[in-house]
User: Fold this.
Amino acid sequence: MGMRDGGRPDDTAYAQAWRAPTDVEQRLYDAKLHGEWGTYFDVLAGARLFHAMSRAKAEADPDILTWTPYWNPANRSYCFAFLTEGLLPAPMPDPVFLRTSLGDLARRAFWDGAWMAINPGTPCEAYFPATPAHRAEWKQHDLRAPGTRQPTTLRALRVGGPLHGPVAHGLACGALLCVSNGSLWNAMGWHGTGFHSERERLLEWWGIASRVQWQAYEEQLLNGRMSDPMWEFALKIRRALADELGGAAVEAGLWRHVSESSMRGRAQETGDADGLEEAIDAVQQFIGRVTRYEARFRADGLLAENRQVRSVLAWDYGRASKMARWGLGARFCELPEAEAAVVRAGEVSKASYDSWEDFSAGYVLGRCLHFDGEEFGTWYGNMLDAHRILTTDPGSPWLNIPWK
Assistant:
């Protein structure tokens, strides 16, 4: 297997100077360096693999894949090239990249004598014949693999991704979801789960199927207008009360009383009392939900003692950071536009919060209000795990990028 099957020798100076962009490429390089091809395939089996495809063909029929081989003079054969996540080029309008896996490649019969090329042109490259016998070995590695969905973990691009500055700050505003999904938090050049999957994600979860729709949703998120406006209305009242009390925690009873009085006063001023009682009841229920979530947050260390969530706008701003990248992966925008949106996400977040911890509490509360229903299930648990990693891991952007 591997290099003895037709790869070219490394340029030693280049290999020694090379820095692997992620842990995956480093493990591939180490396995290749020591001739441990079984380990190399174990890494491949647990990695996300990508291949290029014409955008026109990808958009014409998402169910039909086009595999384009290239001639490799080193082993005098045609090869199909596959890249691991850290070695993908910056997204361009064309081509697009689709995600696959070693198990999927083992099951396909398109090879017709061609070889599999992994990360060609890099120190961790390797070339493998793809006969039925070889593909049977790939299947065995795939069966032992934990799967291509990364666990909750902090992952970063060591090369090719910003680690400091405005872009990095904006990317770090989406880090909770990146850690939860095991994706690279600082990958500005986002391919995500591949072109088709990124489009499916936006359609399924957001109803987005065009650039115009993506732009509209991105703008609403950056302006904090995607969440229920009642949430921020009620929290704004509590913030005002806290300011009057010199920053002290606001009791739920006082919050309820002032919220109701404010709503009745507004209705009297405008002369519009339609739905007033229902709106007051909704706010009172919201206050109860928030106080119960905050009690749990404090018990779990997500919120400091005597601290209260200032705002849930982080839920919109954090998603805006991710939406910019999802739009790029789906090719509803290009890199400069996505980067500008990420920077804006960081700026509006800094204007609303005082620290990464405050931002995190706001984001998690918004997510729980939207999805969790006070079940404290995976919608909450995944975020709690991600919060703990981001506030303790020495490599965390939250510990290395100043909030302001």
In short: Residues 166-226+313-400 form one domain. The chain has three domains: 2-144, 166-226+313-400, 229-300. Residues 71 and 78 are 4 Å apart (CA to CA).
